[in-house]
Amino acid sequence: MTDIRDTFAKVYGRAPEGVWSAPGRVNLIGEHTDYNNGYVLPFAIDRRTWAAVARREDRDIHLRSTFADGEVVASLDALDPAVMEGWSAYVLGVAWAAADAGVTMDGAFGLDILIDSDVPVGAGLSSSAALECAAGAAFNDLWGWELDKIALARLGRVAENKAVGAPTGLLDQAASMLGEADHVVFLDCLTEEARPVPLHLPHEGLGILVMNSNVDHEHATGGYGERFASCALGAKELGVASLREVDRDGLERGLEVLDAETLRRVRHIVTENERVLQTVDTLAAHGPRAIGNLLNESQASMRDDFEITVPEIDLACDTAVSAGAIGARMTGGGFGGSSIALVPLEQADAIADAVRDALARAGMREPTIFTVTPSQGARRDS
Ligand code: GLA
């Protein structure tokens, strides 16, 4: 890949002041629990988005990328989430979210920004959070915000909710900001407390395959918003502030007061929160080889109760497990995107081949399969 500093110099005619980057994420387990104030267990992946930045003398942001033509120009004095469009909304949205949260922008100067990325878009690996967090990390350093990582993650989420219009939770941005090599991030979305949990994958000879179904997903519209609404309805009918408060007894009560569909949605959230906690305990007590069933149960719950998987994902997961994976499940918002399989490294290629063959035999789109390594979160690179 061409060095982003060279490309910046070509585009803007001078060297950047620095380069910041942030990764995409895979969620190991804990799906759709984040906006229900529950638990999640993601990790940052070794695919990143970079922002090369230099300050300007005015208060304009000039934004370019290596993946789209043209330049977006916006004044820091007229940031408006209602009119932000396309990929630039993720960057400008973070600046707006900070101002909206009361972070002073009085001393902020304009910036020339160039974005580059190798996080696949539309794969359910949070290319959007990578962009928000790379921008947030750069703004934080250059404009002297002095915000901590979770506060920056929060700004990314607000950008996503308000500037992009997707009612998502804190999962993606927390993973992108807080990720560490060979660790998952255990995040309690109610208290926003997070701690790294060791995975010991290399030590165990394990790897994680991402199986991108290449079925596109979209969170600003459609199924994701419907699930968000179902969860809100379930909480309201059960008389709780969020589904985080519902336990097995609450589910029993749900049998009486909820319609069948809402009950299934609520059951996924309640059991998924349990599975996240069990995964954290199991990792500590027995290591990653022992979490296979939890991954598989999560996949079944997303398929049958939350109904957010697609046939391509179900077949990929079932095939991976039959071919020797320790466990497999969809990751991310659903309705397409990617699934993951926890695999013994020496079987990774055979499992990937088995999945490709099974999908081909079923007449489905060819998946893109690659390994990911749990990696460091947002940082300044140079
Ligand atoms: C998307 C959202 C996250 C989370 C997941 C589902 O990735 O951006 O906030 O809700 O879906 O777990």
Describe this structure in words.
The chain is of the alpha+beta class and 382 residues long. The protein has two domains: 2-196, Ribosomal Protein S5, domain 2, CATH 3.30.230; 199-372, 2-Layer Sandwich (Alpha-Beta Plaits), CATH 3.30.70.890. 41% of the residues lie in helices and 22% in strands. It has helices at residues 4-12, 88-100, 127-142, 149-164, 171-178, 201-204, 223-238, 248-257, 260-286, 292-304, 311-322, 348-361, and strands spanning 18-29, 39-55, 60-65, 72-75, 111-117, 183-188, 193-198, 206-212, 327-331, 338-344, 368-372, 379-380. The model has no long low-confidence stretch (mean pLDDT 96). Residues 27, 31-32, 34-35, 126, 168-169, 171-172, 219, 332-333 line the site of alpha-D-galactopyranose.
| Span between termini | 16 Å
The level 1 CATH classification of the largest domain is Alpha Beta
The secondary-structure class comes to alpha+beta
Average pLDDT number: 96
Proportion of strand residues: 15-25%
Low-confidence stretches: none
Structure ligands: alpha-D-galactopyranose
Q: What is the CA-based Rg, rounded?
A: 21 Å
